[in-house]
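2024-03-11 09:14:02 INFO queue: dequeued item Ketone reductase, len=422
2024-03-11 09:14:02 INFO validating residues
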Amino acid sequence: MDELAVHRYAPGPRARLGSGPPRSWSVLGEPSTAAERMHRARVSGAAPAVAVVLGEHYGRHADRALLQGLALRRTHGWPLVLVHRGAGGGSLLRAVALEEPGPPLATVELTCAGAEATVAEVARAALGDTRWPDPPGSRRDVLAGADGRTAFAHWRPSALPRGATAEGPVLITGGLGGLGLRIAAVLAAAGADDITLLDVTPPGALPRADAAVLGRLRARVPGLRVLTADVTDRAAVARTLAGARPVTVVHCAGRVAGAPVSDCAPGDLAALRGPKATGLSHVLAAVRHSSLRALLCFGSVTSHRAHRMMGGYGLANEILRRRALAVAPRLPGCAVVVAEWSLWSGAGQAHRMGVVAGAARQGMAPIPLRTGLDAVTRLLAWPRGPEHAAALLLTPVAYGALPTAVVDEGDTAGHSGRRANL
Ligand SMILES: NC(=O)c1ccc[n+]([C@@H]2O[C@H](COP(=O)([O-])OP(=O)(O)OC[C@H]3O[C@@H](n4cnc5c(N)ncnc54)[C@H](OP(=O)(O)O)[C@@H]3O)[C@@H](O)[C@H]2O)c1
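2024-03-11 09:14:37 INFO prediction written
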């Protein structure tokens, strides 16, 4: 496991932002107290800016509002701030910052009740603070709490557990995919004899190498179930998984497609998000929770580190992470962990698409298949209970720069001579 670096995403210490100029806000998104505050903070005649205000849940309305806001930024050159209460969307903005450098982009996440009181000041500061190093794709993500307290999220080194994994039925969504099949094989080799693979792809449509893995798996696990359903179809999932009592769920269903954000329609973003976030909700709605002891979701580093053409995929993974962590309190006896992997070599989407070598040349070393699979078995021993629910960033040690870990910029505040204690 030495080759993998494990980091946990967590709020950092308090940050002090500078102040930003008044703005003539164009407010898009959901009606809410925060949206009302942004409207009220509008100063006519001041420099224009867009505020996209979302609530706790990300859905199609959010796709529409974000893309509409980004179109205004593109057409008029206006800065854009995303304000939300847990819905997310910052990953899309980071990809835009790479693809369309220009006016500032920022995200303000309101982390508790009362944070609305200073939302307009925080939003202004997030857009207006020109002291921040701002290379393309870097983040301006601010966590805003009560009384104007602000923080940046940052990365803390973490480790994979060494405990025993729970025994019992295993359900793998996207189970006929490159990684799903290999995970099943590893769990079977470790003694799992009740494995269900759920996938939208019927087994007969598998490429030859994957069909061979499935054949060997069937030979080793006589009771292997291969179910065909689209996880975005709630009724189909409920029908297909009726009565299922998995102890372990590994949620691997997902699609990858690349396009510049400027070419994306709301439906394109929703299509990438569906198998991951909506699929997770449907699967959890279909299975019995009482037996569930481990939920491992396959996310991606792209939800934090932007890549050109991968904004929609990064967003899908961000919303998956948020959805999984939000559901943890409803799964009290279960370990919930979202593994945000960099790309894998040896099997899976990146391997199949032939992008591993190119990525490695750009400093993004891949996770070798064996290393990743060893990590999966250890992640399945993650401690149970909502208080331990976590998102982990898993990259090879040799991986290029992590998303900037901004720890505390308090010392640099006041550089402009106008120190605001937000
Ligand atoms: N491979 C990597 O380098 C890497 C890195 C980071 C994260 N991940 C994530 O890890 C997971 C597994 O990746 P992988 O490389 O094994 O990808 P994969 O080979 O494409 O497997 C994903 C499987 O999910 C299936 N699927 C897609 N939409 C579905 C739906 N609506 N309902 C049910 N099944 C659906 C796919 O079917 P179709 O083929 O028919 O679409 C495919 O069989 C994915 O979520 C991926 O985003 C992968």
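2024-03-11 09:14:37 INFO annotate: The chain has two domains: 10-153, 170-396.
2024-03-11 09:14:38 INFO item closed
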